[in-house]
Amino acid sequence: MSLPALTLKKQHVFCRFALRTTFRYSGKLSKSLATLSSLNTEFFSAQKQQQERLSPFLNIKEALENVYDVIIVGGGITGLALANALALIDIGNFSRIREWRGDSANEYYSNRVSSITPGSARFLKDIGVWQKLDHTRVKPYQKMVVWDGVSDAQIFFDSENISQALSSLPLFQRLIKKDSIDSNSIAWIIENSNIQHGLLSNLDHFRDKNSGKISIFDNKKVERITCGNDNDFDETKTHEFFDLSEWPIVELDDGQKLKTRLLIGADGINSPVRSFANIETLGWDYNSHAVVATLNIDSTTDNHINNTAWQRFLPTGPIAMLPLHPHVSSMVWSTTPQLAAKIRQIPADQFVELVNGAFRLGIADLNYLYKIIEKSPGSSDYNIGDEVKWRESVNMNSKKSSSPVPPRVVGVQENSRASFPLRMRNAECYVKNRVVLIGDAAHVIHPLAGQGLNQGIADVECLAKVIERGVINGQDIGDLHSIQEYASNRYIKNLMMIGTVDKLHKLFSNDSAPIVWMRSLGLRMIDGLEPVKAEIMKFAMGIER
Fold first, then answer.
1. Over the stretch 463-482, which tens digit does the pLDDT of each residue have?
2. Going from the N-terminus, what domains does the chain have, and what CATH number goes with each?
3. Residue 504: how many CB atoms within 10 A of its CB?
4. Is the entire prediction scored with pTM above 0.85?
């Protein structure tokens, strides 16, 4: 069943489900709040008995101004994805959204990218977003190399071998069918801005197919969220239909009050929606910051194809190089806050050589370079480039010729270096009466596995199906019993992913000899067992959600 259409032809039910959705765009207009469409839910049925069983509270009059079925707070990727999945069909004026898109032909790449798994890509295709992406800036990768920085034990993943092992799975068969997305890829590296533009473009597409109007509230923000009562609205317009006393009220900074049947928090780690619902979080801050940068790589070598994701686990944290373009890659380097600050400060040429060293040098050599940087970052007394090249030449003879290394970095895009703290969080619960949390508002994960956004997209897919079923069955979509299925489905799966990634982080951050020996043995054993690697990738690629 296609989510955007929200139709069930076999049951002779056509559902026109126009939601008014509020979201905050996370781009340049980070404080802007948008309200999509006006509330107007109508049902048509070819069978009288089906029409009669639809609950009366879904028949809301247009006169009920500022009362909505759904409000989504948070206009990042997960918030926009949910707006798309809920099939917003009463859409008209997208003039301001078009201003947000920016120049897709920009020669520079954003330093904020995501690894989109086949499971997430399939869902984006199902809701029409995948087709709206700028595919000149979508980079698939077919290989992945992960290795231990202390012992050099490695595990190698190749999409061809994985495809053979996964070919019998139903979802994988959907991926390889005609006109579907390319299944011969482990994942796709895409700039977050490209995904956001695709989501907005897909919403724009509804404007050409349907009538209605979208209102954009610029320079507005959520002032507070409260649980209201009927006195906040005209009683003559409410009591005839249903009790609004427990519906959340979102108050904007201009005084407007928006009341909703279901409030969805897609508003990040410091979620106001989660605070309103009094939902606590469990977790901790890692003593790590992630340094991100956009790298220019050497594309002059023979048989150069930038189709491999590289990740090396160092005692201070993993460093990863992800392909963006034949001669551009994205870097994510997790390390201590102190070292992260120094890495951002050193001159570009020294930074480039330090990154090359981080993928090639031994731990003792890297520790020596760290000390140089921490004592005198950018000092002319030390040349990081010369140190790296000399130490690399010394180590060359002892390194196995068969050991793969990433392409050499030759430059860093100007102003692309940045850093952010790493945290692990999971909300105690994802739903309360008339409140749902998705994405980072519900859970935050270490980036070493590239699963954060994919978890959020899986949340969206699950919640959209739950809401759709609730509407078709005539349920109150904000009632706890209607939305509990979402929490039951997603909580355990997210907890498993968060726990697995957290344990991997702790395992590879330990450089004691017994731990290094055990994890190296494990890597080498797994690398020789294709069925085991296929099971790992089935989990990581979102093939079974």
1. 999 998 888 888 888 999 99
2. 13-108+193-280+428-507 (3.50.50.60), 283-421 (3.30.9.10)
3. 16
4. no
Q: 290 φ, ψ to 5°?
A: -100, 120
**Sign of the dihedral through C-alpha 195, 201, 206, 212:** positive
Q: What angle do CA 350, 351, 357 make, to 5 degrees?
A: 90
Closest CA to 83 of 71, 92, 93, 94: 71
- pLDDT of res. 54: 39
DSSP code at position 408: P
Q: Which residues of 60-85 are buried (b: 16+ CB within 10 A; e: fewer)?
A: beeebebbbbbbbbbbbbbbbbbbbb
Consecutive H or E run containing 348: helix 348-360
Q: How confident is the model at residue 80 (pLDDT cuts 50, 70, 90)?
A: confident
Query: Residue 468 and residue 72: Cα distance in Å, rounded?
Result: 16
Tokens coding 204: 């724009």
Confidence of residue 63 (pLDDT cuts 50, 70, 90): very low
Bridge partners (DSSP) of residue 23 are 34
Which tokens sit at 40? 């107007």
